[in-house]
Inverse folding.
């Protein structure tokens, strides 16, 4: 389908909701300024949509020039569909997920975006598509004997890379991995969704074996909270982002490529502490004593830190085997 065909399919069924407007008025062709007043959309938005062929490219003569023009009927339908779109970040916020998780779901075909989006503006969705994002009725329920794990806890196990939210959620949606949804709020989805632990970990292992995840199709910048999610830390570990230039204030945005690179090189004190079952202060002292390099404040050389973690784990296991 061409851009205009795909876009028209999104709003063709929407009836112009203006009972005081007669048929002749709806068929009228108007210029950009009047179109903006009628539709409630900014001039720049309408011009960009017209240039991107999201609405029929009509023209109106103005002296020797041909300027963008719009049919009122189509314009009203387009404006209604445009205003009800939901951005990827809004869907992510609603379900308590990082925005790149929603984008991954689009790439995997689990979530279908609307055609009504400008080039480079990211993914947008109809309200209906957003509402159906995690439909409890479509889940394949786990058998009683199957051990389950919360999606949130599962993803926290993925370290040093972008987490494969899209792969897991798509597999759940297709019934390839059984799952059940516990009661609760939408924004707690990752903690409410209980997944077949063995199958999910097997899938994550297969994804990891393919190498570093592709960033193709993902937004080039991510918000601060999503950056912390990639780095497996919280805002208390703000030093993990030191040296990565940001733009904006609210939200503050960081280049995804650089955050992913940082994740592959550095691990936060809090994550190491969890592995060692120690508090952060004792963990920092241990890392310093072992001469593990602190690359950024609260962020340690990943390779050397995990060598220490593995040695500590082996020693602990050996001690436990002697006890039992």
């Amino acid at each position: 389908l061409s851009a205009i065909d795909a876009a028209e399919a999104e709003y063709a069924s929407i009836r112009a909701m203006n009972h005081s407007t007669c048929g002749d008025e709806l068929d009228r062709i108007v210029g950009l300024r009047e179109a903006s007043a009628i539709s409630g959309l900014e001039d720049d938005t309408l011009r960009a949509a017209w240039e991107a062929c999201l609405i029929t490219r009509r023209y109106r003569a103005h002296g020797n020039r041909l300027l963008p023009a719009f049919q009122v009927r189509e314009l009203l339908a387009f404006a209604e569909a445009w205003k009800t779109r939901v951005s990827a970040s809004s869907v992510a916020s609603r379900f308590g997920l990082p925005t790149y998780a929603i984008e991954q779901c689009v790439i995997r075909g689990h979530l279908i975006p609307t055609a009504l989006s400008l080039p480079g503006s990211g993914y947008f969705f109809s309200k209906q598509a957003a509402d159906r994002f995690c439909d409890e009725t479509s889940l394949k329920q786990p058998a009683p004997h199957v051990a389950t794990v919360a999606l949130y806890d599962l993803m926290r196990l993925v370290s040093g890379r972008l987490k494969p939210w899209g792969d897991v959620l798509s597999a759940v949606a297709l019934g390839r991995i059984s799952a059940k949804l516990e009661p609760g709020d939408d924004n707690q989805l990752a903690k409410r969704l209980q997944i077949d632990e063995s199958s999910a970990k097997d899938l994550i292992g297969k994804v990891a074996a393919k190498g570093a995840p592709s960033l193709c199709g993902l937004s080039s910048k991510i918000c601060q909270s999503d950056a912390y999610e990639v780095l497996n830390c919280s805002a208390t570990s703000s030093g993990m982002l030191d040296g990565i230039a940001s733009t904006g204030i609210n939200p503050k945005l960081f280049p995804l490529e650089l955050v992913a690179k940082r994740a592959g090189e550095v691990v936060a004190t809090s994550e190491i502490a969890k592995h060692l079952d120690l508090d952060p202060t004792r963990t920092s002292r241990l890392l310093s004593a072992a001469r593990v390099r602190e690359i950024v404040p609260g962020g340690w050389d990943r390779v050397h830190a995990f060598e220490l973690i593995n040695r500590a784990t082996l020693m602990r296991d050996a001690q436990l085997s002697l006890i039992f």
User: Anything to note?
Assistant: The longest strand covers residues 65-71. The chain is about 45% helix and 15% strand. The mean pLDDT is 90.
